[in-house]
């Protein structure tokens, strides 16, 4: 290992390789388990990533990419691995105003990229809670979603070009800036959302949009579940092209975030089973506000909405979003487990009812709090059963019920280590076998973020160093 | 071969295997070279596709998928192969109104799928000239683009789930209906746009949108190239979310489609260097028309537009689109070669000027007609030099100049056989090598549409039958 570290130090220059206490310090996170990396490597360029991968590949030593380390599925757990921290590769290399694209290094923080686009009158529409720490490399590697997927898609839909490094150090540079490019297999898709298991993302070209100049929001109370998709489709239709969010809070969530000690206060009275936050982004404030009012009137006339408030100012809009974002209140239910799933809207009501009944049957004091991006079929479920040790039993229920309705165990957070053992709930044996074959082809020595997404196929082919690292990783 | 045919006949049932004259008849097409398939197989189900692939795989006999056979790059050329015609797998299996998705078999004609969605108040926004013959399997396998990519994306962006069959007959079913689904590697991306080289698409789940109820169009004359991207960004901004097309016709194209014997007549006088067709789709006819007028006023005030007409009726809109679609007029320039490329908007003007100069230098009577989806960076270039035999020389110029500006040799048509030899103009050696490794992994016996996209890696591993087929294919 000393020999490898000396080599990596050479490649990475001063401050480029953290070991011992420095590495342990870098591995402290409140968000996610980072484990105990062998070392933390801080490359400054794609070429350095390539050289360090080549060295690790030759030595059979695993690597785990680190961006903002705000993931929620232990995808950056690095025990037994060299962590590749991208904090020295954080430049915005180019913003092409005519082409409406930006070229960004993997370590650039999402919010920094968003602000740089905005300064040019452009818009990078990826919006998520971790925006201030998550990196571009991280959101690309995990195909992050967030609040505006309904209109702008997932991260995958914003990536036009990508440069990545393969396990053996080969640089695959495909920094295409074009919306249309049908020249053979779309290799970048294998880097996007594969959580660092097939290659390390070093740079991307992102598609930008025009910066919206108007914003509207409304807060609604809804009496029945079946009115939710009707309402969604009504808004999609009436607010053609401008609907940017359709967030639903189940009663329990709304009550938690609007009662002491939460800072938020009710926007509409308690008592309705569902609350919806609707948002539009546009370019014509007067006209857009009128449309929102008109769409709401139609919804009221159709009996889809029991009560509604339209935000009259930025402060009121912010207040609505603040409720939606005050997820921390769920901790008031004691130890809880959070889930990020997606399923057909038509299956949601029965799924949640069945799951809640199953939880209550086993733990009579169980709590279940639900909210989510309904427009994307994405629900966040927070379950508390009073015991931290019950995680697996709760997971079995959540994912077991989900499997029956063809849902996805990960809508936007990814698989990482946490959901790996449940992958078969959402993917067929043929799919998992094919993923395994891809993994084996891209990473024959299993050094790329091993153990994430897929179980390691077999005993690694490398020397004793890797074997002990693996043991640590799986321990 | 007789033994294989007997087996395929068994699998496919009555009318399921066409040979001899019947196969030759099926291979007649005005659009594309289909070659002389060994036979034409017409499976009725995914299971039959699986069984027939298993048989062909065992025998080492190539297969080439056939949908509507309206491709433009000889991607369905089937000499030496069994063509898999999907015309008996053409059902729309489900339309989920709440979830706004449809599940469709590969052989369903695009227009049929669009109409079925429309009947439910929903919208499948893929729109291209071949809509009446192209199939869903074909548009997915080639990642078709078309007129509304600017707003709705390519076919790739509409596919939520996909079922495909691998070379050895393994069915990989991932009929996910969810917008958000981050459970491991996104395998469907390897089937989309890979032109049947990695697997055969059998079914897909498509994302639908609300059916627009308003439509506006305007026709503009523009004096300088640099005003085009400014105009595009102005419309994108002002018509937030509703801009669905921004089509540019260069002077020569506009004159061809508005003079005898073309049926079209000028909408604006001849003489401007560029004409633009702008379209919006929305849900508020009065409000949307007002916005279009207002955006146009801003464009006129900013000096971006020299002259403009707004369509006042569907007939007027149709007349605008009819000009754009009357591509057949380019045949009046004698034998021509058509190109489908994309490049950065900022590089377009110099690229076209350089290319035209190079064509004229070599062929003083050369013609070059240009039009395209400027919003996507996608240009269609029609070059005529008077000699049909000059194809390669013209290709060398078009792609050679394109390579210098980092353009793409195929924006939306794909690579097929026609562009294969130029792949290196748009993809790096590392990318091509990685594509080759994927091909070898997915299709070790090289039976899946061999020779398309990539050159066959080496002498096939199969028996003499395959060897002779290969010879035919490459002849």
Topology, element by element:
Two copies of one chain form a homodimer.
Chain A: H1 2-12, E1 17-18, H2 20-26, E2 39-41, H3 46-59, E3 63-66, E4 82-85, E5 92-96, E6 101-105, H4 110-119, E7 122-123, H5 136-141, H6 149-152, E8 159-165, E9 171-174, H7 188-191, E10 200-207, E11 209-210, E12 214-222, H8 227-238, E13 243-250, H9 251-257, E14 274-282, H10 285-301, E15 307-310, H11 314-325, E16 336-342, H12 345-362, E17 367-373, E18 378-384, H13 391-404, H14 423-426, H15 429-442, H16 464-474
Helix pairs in contact in A: 1-3, 8-10, 12-13
Q: How would you describe this protein?
A:
- Chains A, B: Its cofactor is FAD.
- Chain A has 475 residues and is of the alpha+beta class.
- Chain A folds into four domains: 2-85, Uridine Diphospho-n-acetylenolpyruvylglucosamine Reductase, domain 2; 92-210, Uridine Diphospho-n-acetylenolpyruvylglucosamine Reductase, domain 3 (2-Layer Sandwich), CATH 3.30.465.10; 214-327, Alpha-Beta Plaits, CATH 3.30.70.2190; 334-425, 2-Layer Sandwich (Alpha-Beta Plaits).
- Helix content of chain A is 35%, strand content 20%.
- Chain A has 16 helices and 18 strands.
- A seven-stranded antiparallel beta sheet of chain A has the order 15-12-14-13-17-18-16, sandwiched between helices. In chain A, strands 5-6-10-8-9 form a five-stranded antiparallel beta sheet. Chain A has a four-stranded mixed beta sheet with strand order 1-2-4-3.
- In chain A, a hairpin with a 5-residue loop joins strand 8 (159-165) and strand 9 (171-174).
- In chain A, helix 12 (345-362) packs antiparallel against helix 13.
- Chain A starts with a helix and ends with a helix.
- The interface between A and B is large, with 97 and 97 residues.
């Amino acid at each position: 290992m000393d020999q490898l570290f000396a080599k990596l130090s050479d490649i990475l220059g001063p401050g480029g390789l953290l070991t011992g206490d420095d590495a342990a310090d870098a591995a402290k996170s409140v968000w996610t388990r980072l484990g105990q990396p062998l070392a933390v490597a801080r490359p400054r360029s794609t070429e350095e990533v390539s050289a360090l991968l080549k060295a690790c590949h030759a030595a059979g030593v695993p690597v785990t990419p680190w961006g903002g380390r705000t993931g929620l599925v232990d995808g950056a757990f690095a025990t037994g691995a060299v962590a590749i921290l991208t904090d020295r590769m954080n430049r915005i290399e180019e913003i092409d105003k005519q082409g409406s694209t930006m070229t960004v290094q993997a370590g650039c923080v999402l919010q920094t990229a968003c602000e740089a686009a905005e300064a040019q009158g452009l818009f990078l529409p990826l919006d998520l809670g971790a925006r201030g720490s998550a990196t571009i490399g991280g959101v690309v590697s995990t195909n992050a979603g967030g609040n505006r997927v309904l209109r702008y898609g997932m991260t995958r839909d914003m990536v036009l070009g990508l440069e990545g490094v393969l396990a053996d150090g080969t640089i695959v540079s495909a920094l295409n800036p074009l919306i249309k490019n049908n020249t053979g297999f779309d290799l970048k898709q294998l880097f996007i959302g594969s959580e660092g298991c097939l290659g390390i993302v070093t740079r991307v070209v992102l598609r930008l949009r025009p910066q919206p100049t108007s914003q509207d929001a409304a807060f609604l109370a809804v009496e029945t579940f079946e009115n939710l998709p009707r309402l969604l489709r009504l808004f999609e239709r009436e607010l053609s092209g401008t609907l940017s969010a359709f967030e639903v809070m189940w009663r329990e969530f709304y009550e938690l975030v609007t009662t002491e000690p939460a800072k938020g206060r009710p926007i509409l009275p308690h008592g309705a089973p569902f609350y919806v936050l609707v948002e539009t982004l546009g370019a014509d404030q007067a006209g857009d506000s009128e449309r929102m009012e008109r769409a709401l009137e139609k919804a009221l006339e159709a009996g889809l909405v029991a009560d509604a408030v339209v935000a009259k100012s930025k402060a009121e809009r912010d207040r609505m979003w603040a409720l939606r974002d005050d997820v921390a209140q769920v901790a008031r239910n004691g130890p809880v487990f959070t889930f990020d799933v997606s399923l057909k809207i038509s299956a949601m009501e029965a799924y949640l009812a069945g799951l809640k009944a199953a939880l209550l049957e086993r733990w009579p004091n169980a709590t279940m709090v639900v909210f989510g991006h309904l427009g994307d079929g994405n629900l966040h479920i927070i379950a508390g059963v009073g015991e931290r040790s019950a995680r697996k039993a709760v997971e079995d229920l959540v994912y077991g019920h989900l499997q029956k309705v063809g849902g996805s165990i990960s809508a936007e957070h990814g698989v990482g280590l946490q959901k790996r053992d449940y992958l078969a709930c959402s993917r067929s044996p043929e799919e998992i076998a094919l993923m395994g074959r891809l993994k084996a082809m891209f990473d024959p020595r299993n050094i790329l973020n091993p153990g994430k997404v897929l179980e390691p196929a077999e005993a690694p082919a490398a020397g004793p160093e890797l074997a002990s690292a693996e043991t640590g990783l799986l321990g």
